[in-house]
Amino acid sequence: MDYISTRGGAPALDFEGATLAGLASDGGLYLPRHWPRFSEGEIAAMAGLPYAELATRVMLPFVEGSLTEEELRALCQQAYGRFSHDAVTPLVQLDEQQWLLELFHGPTLAFKDVALQLLGLLFETFLSRRKSNLTIIGATSGDTGSAAIDAVAGREGVDIFMLHPRGRVSEVQRRQMTTVRAPNVHNIAIEGSFDDAQAMVKRMFGDQGMTSRFNIGAVNSINWARLMAQVVYYFAAALQLGAPHRQVAFSVPTGNFGDVFAGYVSAQMGLPVAQLIVATNVNDILHRALSQGDYSTGIVTPTATPSMDIQISSNFERLLFDAGGRDGKALAEQMRGFEASKAMQLTNTQREGAAGLFTSARADGEEVLQALRWAYDHAGEMIDPHTAVGLHAARTSEIDRAIPVVTLATAHPAKFPEAVERATGIRPALPSRVGDLFAREEAYTELPGEYEAVRDFVSQHASPAA
């Protein structure tokens, strides 16, 4: 399997190369040259497998040429052995149609752990082969940072620099990043929004002065290996609900489009996905793009769902490429126009390519609170506000009642205690395994929202490529 850029101007890479590169040299994102596809019989044979074995079966076609089946299985067993629930991503029933897929049983209580625990091991494996160093540059609106830091803290050959918008992540999210004391971990709080931080990260990948000295890699969902690992839990949920003989729909709270794009990939691989509901908060560029074809940025509005306070969804480019006919040259021109004007209209081909599988919905603050209350009052389940955005979208969808709807529960409710308490009257407690979080000492660097300041900090603290 090799990987090509959505913008058509970068050389194809194998899985190892694409994992270490993160972003393509032409500014595009890597995708497999073709989608592997399982037969109904092959999917049916996956039912009842332990999660690490299921992950090995689902991901094996993507790593061909870079990892053997035995190597991949060993990495999966190590990555998912740290989860607090033996099912790794258990399903919970809410009513006759609505289900929750709990993705927060990893070490940092968020869905990012499912991918990043594996990605940290992939980095270590590939870097040891090459005897080189990797400088990870990341931006986080909350959960990616802590999950990535946990995955690579103390690992050989890796330095991580994680940017977060100062004052725009929850206290639990911030502390999960800033209390990790390892010499290869550097937390940076910048003035500005997540989009500002993400723009700096992308700029650094194109900065020849930096890339000539450092091997710069990505842990954000621009890294294909992250999305690949997330595909697995769509299979896990659907198999438990009757796949391949029964269709399943998914509602996905999303800002950067990575988690829901993994659902798209699962459908391309043969999983019977009836519909993917893209659930946004009031920062609704994805809802507007999918419902009206209008991919135009606005002002980021801070909300109780900070991980979704995004106006530029990096992974949407992957869908535009795949659904639009895989014309890298045309997409590169389209994205250049968007980057200059911050506005773009989807082509008819792109809209038609997305229309069969995707729908979208938007939840405001009051609708989020209502979904939180409903889950607690009617099913005894506490959920976090991001999950509530997805549940609102799921419950207001017009999907056939015979088709189960799975909302991805992306974070533990204790990561957002104020919002949960406001809705339910009960303040959720942190699990015992992270219960001393508020007693740990924090360490991070505050920098202005200027690329040069971040670049200089990284230059001073990162290890050169070799």
UniProtKB/TrEMBL annotation:
Entry cofactors: pyridoxal 5'-phosphate
Claim: Zinc is one of the keywords in the record: no
Threonine synthase N-terminal domain boundaries: 3-80
Keyword terms, alphabetized: Amino-acid biosynthesis, Lyase, Pyridoxal phosphate
The protein's annotated pathway: Amino-acid biosynthesis
Reaction it catalyzes: O-phospho-L-homoserine + H2O = L-threonine + phosphate
Pfam families cross-referenced by the UniProt entry: THR4_C (PF24857), Thr_synth_N (PF14821)
EC number(s) stated in the UniProt entry for this protein: 4.2.3.1
Signal peptide coordinates: none
CDD domains for the chain: Thr-synth_2
Family annotation (PROSITE patterns): DEHYDRATASE_SER_THR (PS00165)
Record-level Gene Ontology MF annotations: threonine synthase activity
InterPro entries associated with the record: Ser/Thr_deHydtase_PyrdxlP-BS, Thr_synth_N, Thr_synth_N_sf, Thr_synthase-like, Threonine_Synthase, TrpB-like_PALP_sf
Superkingdom classification of source: Bacteria
NCBIfam families: thrC
Family: Belongs to the threonine synthase family.
PANTHER family: THREONINE SYNTHASE FAMILY MEMBER, THREONINE SYNTHASE-LIKE 2
Identification of the protein by name: Threonine synthase
Species of origin: Altererythrobacter litoralis
